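Q: Make up one entry.
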Amino acid sequence: MGFIIRDERYGCGEYICTVMLAFGASLFLLSNNSKTFNSNAFLSSNRVTTFSGICLMFGYLLFDAFTLNWQKKLFDVRPRVSRYQMMFGVNIFSMILCLVTLVMEGKLLSPFQFLVTHEGFARDIILLSLTGALGQVAIYATIERFGPVIFAVMMTLRQILSILLSAIAYGHPMSALSIFGLMITFAAIFGTIYTRHHRTT
C-alpha cells in the first residue's frame, strides 16, 4: 500500500519479512482454536462464517493499510499537518458520523439519559477519553516519526503479546502450531528491524 499511495520502494528483505509476519501471526491466531483446523468444520455450515470472516479481515487490513499510509503522506506534504491537527480531524469526522447515526435512528437523547441514570458513568467516559487521546497522540507520533510499517509491526506484536499473556495467565493450552507461528512472527519482527537498520546505515 505504501508503494501505491506514497510511491515508496521496499527491499526484497522487507517483503519477505512482511509475508513471514502475516503468515506467523495468522498461524498463531488461528491455531489457538482447534476447531479451525478440524476438517469437519470446513464441511459444515461454519464454512460460510469462516469465509465471511476472512473477507471482513481482509477488508480491515486493506483499509487499515490505506489509512496508515495516507496519514503518513499527509505528514510528509507541505504545509505539514501536525499530529494534533490529524487527531482533531479524525475525531471531528467520528463525532459527525456518530451524531448523524443517532439522529437517523432517533436516539439522540438516549446517551444523555443513560448518563443521568448511571452513577459513575461520566467518570468512566472522561477516563476513557483521556486514555484514548493519549493513545492517539502516541499512534500519530509513531506514524509521523517511524512510518506505517513500523507501526503495523508494533500493533501486531502488541496483539500477539496480549494473547500470549492471556494464555499464560489463565492457563490456556497452546498448540505446537501456535508456538511455531509465534517463532515465525518474532523472527519476522527482528528481521524487519534489522533490514530497516541496515538500510538507514
